[in-house]
Amino acid sequence: MAALGAAIYAWTFSSTVTADDRDPNLALEARSRVRTGEGGDKYEVKIRTLRWDAGKTAIIVCDMWDDHTCKGAAARVAEMATAMNQTLRTAREKGVFIIHAPSGRTSFYHDTPQRRRALEAPRASVSVEFKWNYWNPDREGAPLAEIFDGGCGCQQPCPGFLEDEHRIRQWKKGGPVPWTRQIATIEIAAQDAISDNGQEIYNLLQERQIDNVILMGVHTNICVSGRPFGLRQMVYLGKNVVLCRDLTDALFQPKTPALDQFRGTDLIVEHIERRLCPTITSTSFTGQKPFRFKADARSADL
After folding, report:
1. CA within 20 to 30 Å of 169's CA: 144, 160, 196, 199, which one?
2. pLDDT in tens for each of the 302 residues of the chain?
């Protein structure tokens, strides 16, 4: 666990921001899509500035694992992690509370203060059930057929994954899965928390009187939207929630040549902006251009 300790404790309490140092108003440029006509299917983009108290705002980092069964997905996580870490560092300096949620792998951090912080937060009562939240047709309309099913988008067999056949056999038999922890590129600061449990995360939010929540991570069409701490859950809990749309990625198998990885992610982001919540970019924190994958050769105007 020595390497783990170095990764977690490298960021010390000397970086903690006191209440007097905080900017009470985060200025987040939020994008949503509003229906233009009654009963129609046309939407127009609306931009407004959300001014949130940093001390009453949390960022949840969803499933940024160190590895994945899909090697393409794992590579994109690794590429995005540096920009995400910079965003988290800036947000933390402003007083935003950071919750790391590497689903299924919180046991890796079982003896850390950040994990105990989540376990020891007072239980908060709520009438909403914490569960996996599937696509809600009543609220969201018909599922997006292009990306709804998920699946590895790499050419089959997934490049790199089948090189270790023993690992595959062990995984299929219920052995260790390819993901083991959150990717080490993302620093876990002393004042952060670690949990993948919806009730625990809600406890942390209520303990700190946090009503504003930002989701980032993977995968937009599956875990970011559906986890018991994801976008749908936060909407159902009545939180003010936004997606950080440049620090996310979708997981799906393109069904047509016109639909590539990046357009697929755009589709689910557009759906979220119509039916679930607004989205922002990391620019609101860093002041820099939004993150873009190097393989995304489309016009920056998109």
Report:
1. 196
2. 434 443 443 332 223 333 344 556 899 999 999 988 776 778 999 999 999 999 999 999 999 999 988 889 999 999 999 999 999 999 999 999 999 999 999 999 999 999 999 999 999 999 999 999 999 999 999 988 877 667 787 765 565 544 455 555 655 666 556 778 999 999 999 999 999 999 999 999 999 999 999 999 999 999 999 999 999 999 999 999 999 999 999 998 887 778 889 999 999 999 999 999 999 999 999 999 999 999 998 866 54
Phi-psi region of 91 (alpha: psi -120 to 50; beta: other; left: phi over 0): alpha
pTM: 0.87
Question: What span, in angstroms and rounded, lies between the C-alpha atoms of 261 and 271?
Answer: 16
- CATH number of the domain that 100 lies in? 3.40.50.850
Range of the domain at 63: 23-286
Among residues 237, 239, 204, 210, the alpha carbon closest in space to that of 101 is found at 204
Instruction: Answer positive or negative: Cα dihedral of 288, 210, 133, 275.
Output: negative
CA-nearest of 91, 290, 66, 72 to 182 is 66
Count of beta carbons in the 10 Å neighbourhood of residue 149:
14
Q: Give the chain's domain count.
A: 1
Q: Residue 134 burial by CB count (10 A; 0-12/13-18/19+): exposed, middle or buried?
A: exposed
Report the phi/psi class of residue 174: left, alpha or beta, with left for phi > 0 and alpha for psi in -120 to 50: left
Please report, in angstroms and rounded to a whole number, the separation of the first and last CA atoms in the chain: 44
Q: Is residue 292 part of a domain?
A: no
* Strand extents, DSSP E, the chain: 26-35, 43-52, 57-62, 97-101, 193-194, 212-218, 240-249, 279-280
